[in-house]
Protein: N-(5'-phosphoribosyl)anthranilate isomerase
Organism: Heliorestis convoluta
Amino acid sequence: MARVKICGIGTYEDAMVAIESGAHAIAFNFVRASKRYINPEKARDIILQLPPFVSIVGVFADEPRYSVEEIASLCRLQVLQFHGQESPEYCRRWSYHTIKAFRLADAKNDIAKQEQSNALFSSWTALLEESQQYDVDAFLVDAYSPGALGGTGKAFDWSKIDGPLSKPFVLAGGLNPDNVAEAVRIVKPYGVDVASGVEVGGRKDPAKAKAFINAVHKGISLYGVSI
Ligand SMILES: O=C(O)c1ccccc1NCC(=O)[C@H](O)[C@H](O)COP(=O)(O)O
């Protein structure tokens, strides 16, 4: 089955909802502009109470390298997700697994002029070409929503995905218990990522998280192969 990452853990209870639902990875958001931002000390307190066998991911956007190193070490992160305009050079030589996030807009005209970025595309071909510059462990493709880097609950047009990336591909953006089985069937990603789609009132919801993971099981697929 596709791997599942639940993003935007804000409390110990959120983390346990994700883990007990069967998530393979949980993510703490260190992007200050995000409503899901968590202070690194608070994240560390939660992480130190967690059971083993769950990947701990930190989400960053254009954070100075020294600061990422500090937070990763403090919080014992295992995976770094770069959600801003980080260059290929920046993304190299980390002693952690790395994921580079890109956003895909449905149409060129959707992209506001002031939001042009090396991580924002309206065509799969352009995204694919840019991804070839990056020596990371996986790519995450999210939806574009004006004025936000992620976590908006908006999906993109999955039919724009056209051909494999060179590294495992994590599908994100507007996934929820009602659409994720179809998304997995159509896209056949290595993994899926969700924030808004398993929340109620800003907290991770046990029923939604379980329904989400059950639906991923129904969609199956890992690396494009049904198992
Ligand atoms: O979740 C956020 O608030 C966020 C803010 C800024 C950068 C990244 C952010 N989230 C990263 C993720 O991996 C989210 O899970 C992804 O954007 C999907 O979110 P959603 O559409 O809400 O499921």
The first strand starts at residue 3 and ends at 7. The domain at 3-219 is CATH 3.20.20.70 (TIM Barrel). The radius of gyration is 16 Å. Residues 7-8, 29, 31, 34-36, 59, 61, 83, 142, 149-153, 172-175, 193-197 surround LARABZUK (CB under 6 Å).
